[in-house]
Design a protein that fits this description.
The chain is of the alpha/beta class. It contains 10 helices and 14 strands. Helix 1 packs across helix 9 and helix 3 runs parallel beside helix 5. The protein is globular, with a radius of gyration of 19 Å. The two termini are 30 Å apart.
Length: 332
């Protein structure tokens, strides 16, 4: 079977597939969606389990994808998640297979996911203060996230990674505290600059906490030195903490973009290909699936979709427009 690389016009090849399984979420993080939530996709619009697995198989077998991450929304609210993971693992034993989650359901599913073939998890946790967690997520579920992280570690879903966003005037004074908490538990922490992907379109560059501010906050308590391992296409710049071996990462998508090394492609829950997180155009694979297209045609449509990828996200361009879909609807 001929492999058609997912190459764009600038020489980048996508090998990392992010698959959103749902746009639904059981938190209401202030930097993502409004308190009242959003209008969810109609059930008939969402890819079913067989459709998800088929598209992943095409990506792996025909398009050279070697890493798959299931996202949302919150992927743990997808009833068929464990089965989807098991069927994806059956496609190839060599796939790097992970999920990005808010951690709420991990305490009861971590072992089943590990048994199904999941390699690791990324869990979003922006604070280790219960009151700040409630303020940011609008839910009193901090203990559930902590239990989920512990369950993931116990199930061998490591390295367990924690993703954190700092918000000005909310938790921007807690960077060192959060890192210390993660170091004590052997979790790998990665700070992420807030990106213009909120449903409310309230993001502003002046309001976000930058990578430089994150470094300044951490430098007050820790000695950070660049990790020797090559970054490659990884979104996080990694730093040794106090000489290592523990590390902390910073994903500076806005102030230190890494578009030139991007190897990611995204599949939304309703079957649309997004060749960039910030793209305003999508390519419909669901329609092809449901009209009976064979694997070769779907692979060809996917290749075409990737050729139109822009050289960069363009956030600094005065003509930049935020995507119409928010992060919860795109998938991380």
């Amino acid at each position: 079977m001929q492999v058609l690389p997912l190459a764009d016009a600038y020489g980048r090849v996508a090998t990392d597939l992010r698959v959103s399984l749902t746009d639904r979420c059981n938190l209401r993080c202030s930097y993502c969606m409004p308190a009242e939530g959003l209008d969810w996709l109609p059930n008939d619009d969402v890819l079913d389990d067989d459709e998800v697995v088929r598209l992943v198989r095409i990506a792996v077998e025909r398009l050279g994808v070697d890493e798959v991450r299931f996202t949302g929304g919150e992927p743990l609210v997808r009833r068929g998640l464990v089965d989807i993971v098991a069927r994806t693992r059956a496609i190839s034993p060599d796939l790097e297979l992970s999920i990005t989650s808010n951690g709420l359901g991990l305490a009861r599913t971590a072992q089943a996911l590990a048994d199904a073939g999941l390699d690791r998890v990324n869990v979003s946790l922006d604070t280790v203060r219960r009151d700040t967690f409630h303020e940011m997520t609008r839910r009193d579920r901090f203990d559930d996230v902590v239990a989920g992280l512990e369950a993931a570690a116990a199930a061998g879903l490591g390295p367990v990674k924690v993703n954190a966003v700092l918000m000005r005037g909310v938790n921007d004074d807690q960077a060192a505290e959060l890192l210390r908490w993660c170091l004590e538990r052997s979790y790998e922490l990665r700070f992420i600059e807030q990106m213009p992907l909120d449903a409310q379109h309230g993001w502003s560059r002046d309001g976000m906490i930058t990578a430089d501010e994150i470094f300044a906050a951490l430098d007050q308590e820790f000695d950070l030195t660049p990790a020797e391992e090559p970054r490659g296409s990884a979104p996080a710049e990694k730093f040794l903490v106090d000489g290592g071996p523990a590390t902390v990462g910073v994903i500076a998508s806005v102030t230190r973009p890494f578009c030139g090394d991007c190897d990611r492609v995204r599949l939304t829950a309703d079957g649309q290909i997004r060749n960039c997180l910030f793209a305003r155009n999508e390519s419909d694979l669901r329609a092809a699936l449901r009209r009976g297209a064979d694997d070769e045609e779907i692979a060809r449509l996917w290749v075409i979709a990737m050729r139109g990828k822009a050289p960069g996200h363009g956030i600094d361009d005065e003509t930049f427009l935020q995507p119409t879909r928010s992060m919860s609807a795109i998938g991380g």
